[in-house]
Amino acid sequence: MFASEIPPKARSVILALTGIILCSLSLSAQTPSPNAKAEPITGSITGRVVNESGQGIPNVTVYTRPSLAFSQRITSTDSEGNFKFDGLDSALYIISASAPGYVMPPRDPEAEPIYYRLSDSVTLSLIKGGVITGTILSSSGEPVVQVAVRATLVRDANGQVPKYSGSQAQRTTDDRGVYRLYGLPPGTYVVSAGGRNSFGGYGAYDEDGPTFAPSATRDTAAQISVSSGDETTVDIKYRGETGHAISGTLTGMSDASLSSTINVSLMQFDSGAPMTTAAAFTPPGSKTFAIYGVADGEYDLTAQSFVTAGDSSVSENRHITVKGADITGIELNLKPLGTISGHVVLAKSEMAKCKNKRQPLFSEMMIAVRRSEKEKHPEPPRFMNFFAPQGVPNQLGDFKMRNLAPGQYNFSARFFARYWYLKSIVQQAGATVPAPAKTAAANNQNDLARNGVTLRFGENVSRVTVNLAEGAASLHGNLKLETGQRVPPKLLVYLVPAEKESAEDVLRFFASEVGSDGAFALNNLPPGRYWALGQVTPNNETRSENKLRLPAKTETRAQLRRAAEAGKLLVELKPCQNVSDYQLPVWLASQKD
C-alpha cells in the first residue's frame, strides 16, 4: 500500500509504527528509591549496523522508541555503519533498522524481545531481502497497468505461521504490466493482483476479486519460496472477475468511538496464517461501512475503534461466508475492551551478602500479559493490542494495561537487576475475578502466575500485585563433554524445585538453551534447592521459559520434575550466590525423537 492511499489520521498512526510493529512484548518506568544506587537520568545508546559478512552498512535508517510509546527517534548510520542516540531518558528501548533491499533476520517466534538500556552498545544485523518480480497480463495477453500486486507471507524462514497479519508487500505494475517486490523477508508467499487491500484510495481494479498466481483463486494459489538475496519470477494471468461487497452498520459506539476512526477488517486464515484480505476506515461519526472486491471464501469480520492513549472498543468476530453474491445488512456491535491494573512491590533483603546491590528500576521493567493460544485467532482485529498487553509501572510502581480483548490471559514480568527475582504475581481478595480463574490460597490470594485470568468485554481486573524480592542467585556453566562429543541440538538445561512444597510454584521452573560451545546461563533464581536436568526438546514442545509456566503446561512440568528427580542432580543456591563454573554431565533424562 502507498502512503497516498491512507487517510491522514490513519497515516500518522501507521507511520509511527513503521519498523517496530512485529516487535512485540513490553516494558515499564520508575525512579530509584533513596536506598538504591543512583542511576543516570539521561544517557545514550550507541551501535552499529552490519551485513551478513559483519561489514558496516552506511546510510541505514535506525529507529528507537521506549516501550509503549508511539513516538520514536530516528537517526542514520555513518560511513562505517555506526549510530548513536543521545539524550535518552532512562527506559527500556526497542531498536530496529531499515535499508532499501535489506531486512532484519528471522527470529525465533518464542524468543523474548530484545530491549536495550542506557549505555548499551548495540549490533544490528541486516540481510539481503528476497525479490519477487513478474508480469501481469490480461486474458488477451495485454499488460495490466497500475494494478496492485501483493506478496503475503504464509510461512517464515523457519516454516512457522506468522502470528500477525500485515506481513505483506505491495507495488503496482508499470506500463508494461511489470511489477517488482523487493526487500522481502525469507519465507513462503502467495502472490495476488487486483482487489482492494488498502486503507483508502481508489484504483481501477479495486472491485475485482484478487487473482492469485499463476491464474487462480486463493485455494489453488501457488506457494512461492523466497530466500535471502534471491530473485524469483512469478507471472500472473489476470482473471478480471468482479468481486463482491460486504456492507453494514456499526452500533454500540461510545463518544470516544464516534470521534475516532473505525477500522473494519476482513481477515482470512490460511492454515492458521492471518491474511488481511481487505480493510476499510470509516470517518469519525460514520455508522456504516462497505468493503469491495471480496472473492468467494470464509472470512472473519471485525470492527475496532483506535483511540491513541485511550480506551478503544471492538466488535466480536463475525464469521462470513461469501459465495457468489454481495452480503449486506451486517451489524457490528462495538463493545469496550478490558483492563488489568496493579502494583509492583520491591522487597529488599537484610542479608549481608545482598547489601549494596543494584535495585531494579521501574523504568527498566515490563509487566505483560499474553492471550492464551487456545483462542481460535489470538489477534483478530488488525490494530488489536499492539501495546495493550504490556504494563509500565509509574514512579510509584502502579501499572495499567488497557484495551484487552476477551479471553484467557497469562502473566509475565521482566526486569534488569541481577540479584532480584520474581517471587509472585497475585490478586488480592475482593478484586473481580471470573470463577474459573479462582483458586484461592489460604491467604485468599489468587496465584495469577499459575492460573492466569479470564477477561470479558469491558471488565476491569484490579489489585494485581507483582512481588519482586532481593536475594536472587545465578547458575552459569558448561556441559561436561568428553573428547569428540558435541552438544546435542535443541538441548536445554532445566531447573525444577526440589522442595515438595514448591512443586506447584511455576516461578521456580527455569530453562536455558545450551549454546554450541556447551555454555548455559540461568539468572534471577529464587534461592533454594533445585533438580538440574539436561534434555533435548522436540520441535513441537516449548523452549520458552514463559510457556513452560503456562497453566496448560501442568503435565509438562510434572514430567520434567519426575525426570529431574530420577537424575538426582541436586543444586542448592544461597541468597545472592553466583555459581559460574557448574559442570553438567552430558546425560539426557528423556531424549525424545
Would you mind describing this structure in some detail?
This protein is mainly β and 593 residues long. It has five domains: 3-127, Immunoglobulins (Immunoglobulin-like), CATH 2.60.40; 130-237, Carboxypeptidase-like, regulatory domain (Immunoglobulin-like, Sandwich); 244-336, Immunoglobulin-like (Sandwich), CATH 2.60.40; 338-470, Sandwich (Immunoglobulin-like); 474-585, Carboxypeptidase-like, regulatory domain (Immunoglobulin-like). Helices cover 6% and strands 43% of the residues. It has five helices and 41 strands. The strands form eleven sheets. Strands 10, 11, 13, 14 and 15 form a five-stranded antiparallel β-sheet that branches. Strand 19 (262-270) and strand 20 (273-282) form a beta hairpin. The longest helix has 14 residues, at 554-567. The radius of gyration is 26 Å and the shape is globular. It starts with 7 loop residues before the first helix and ends in an 8-residue tail after the last strand. Residues 1-39, 376-388, 433-442 and 588-593 have low confidence and may be disordered.
Brief summary of the model shown:
With 593 residues, the chain is mainly beta. Strand 2 (61-66) and strand 3 form a beta hairpin.
Provide the fold topology:
Blueprint: H1 8-17, E1 42-50, E2 61-66, E3 73-76, E4 82-89, E5 93-98, E6 102-103, E7 121-125, E8 127-128, E9 130-137, E10 148-156, E11 168-172, E12 178-184, E13 187-193, E14 211-212, E15 224-226, E16 231-233, E17 236-237, E18 244-251, H2 255-258, E19 262-270, E20 273-282, E21 288-294, E22 297-305, E23 313-315, E24 318-322, E25 327-336, E26 338-347, E27 365-371, E28 390-391, E29 398-404, E30 407-415, E31 420-427, E32 446-447, H3 448-451, E33 453-455, E34 460-470, E35 473-480, E36 491-497, E37 510-513, E38 519-525, E39 528-536, H4 545-548, H5 554-567, E40 570-573, E41 578-585
Parallel strand pairs: 1-7, 9-16, 9-17, 18-25, 26-34, 35-41
Antiparallel strand pairs: 1-4, 2-3, 2-5, 6-8, 9-12, 10-11, 10-13, 13-14, 13-15, 18-21, 19-20, 19-22, 22-24, 23-25, 26-29, 27-28, 27-30, 30-33, 31-32, 31-34, 35-38, 36-37, 36-39, 39-40
